[in-house]
Amino acid sequence: MSATRLDEGQLTEHVEELAELLVDAVDGGASIGFLAPLDRAAAVAWWKERAAALAAGQVAVWAAFDGRRVVGTVSLAFPDKPNSRHRAELVKLMVHRGARGRGLGRALLGVAEEAAAAAGITLLHLDTETDSPAERLYDSAGWVWAGVIPDYAADPGGELRPTTLYYKRLRAAAPAG
Question: Where are the alpha helices (DSSP H) in 28-172?
């Protein structure tokens, strides 16, 4: 499986597959901002909205492919304030339930971290549902626990759940030459 940084055209080309991945993640219990059941049309619309943010440089999206099928994704969201250009938020790390257990989540996390460092980002942050499987991934990948916010977001079933905040310091890549 390979991970590719998507441009606006590629995101549009793969929007149906990306929507399928999003629906699968939500149906599988991932707390990534949506309630279950997630309507496929709503998932397509959400990804189409990302195309504008991608074109504006507000977000970067990578997709992992198993052949031609999208089986995972991760994104970085970049702040627009001048005092925060050194950081980015890791968002929407998703792996299709049928592709889990093969290290794809860790690989996508590594791709995002490396790309962030290459872009001069020195600090990443994220939030994830407390006690979710994602916490084990972030802990084992060297992310630092920053705290828990109670009742931060509803899980896909609508129950309010706590969220754990993490951060990771990066070394910006040295300029070539």
Answer: 40-55, 104-118, 133-140
Handedness of CA 8, 10, 13, 17 (dihedral sign): negative
CA gap 44, 20 in Å, rounded: 8
Distance from C-alpha of 53 to C-alpha of 97, rounded to nearest angstrom: 27
| pLDDT on residue 68 | 84
Q: End-to-end alpha-carbon separation of the chain, Å?
A: 31
For residue 74, what are the β-bridge partners? 62
Nearest to 145 by CA among 161, 162, 157, 159: 162
Domain at 2-169, CATH from 1.10.10.10, 3.40.630.30, 3.20.20.140, 3.40.50.2000: 3.40.630.30
Give the Cα separation of 31 and 18 in Å (integer). 17
- Closest listed residue to residue 127, CA positions, set 101, 87, 89, 98: 89
Mean pLDDT of 121-135: 97
Helix (H, G, I), strand (E, B) or coil at 144: strand
Note the pLDDT tens digit of each residue in 13-49: 999 999 999 999 999 999 999 999 999 999 999 999 9
Give the start-to-end residue ranges of the domains of the chain: 2-169
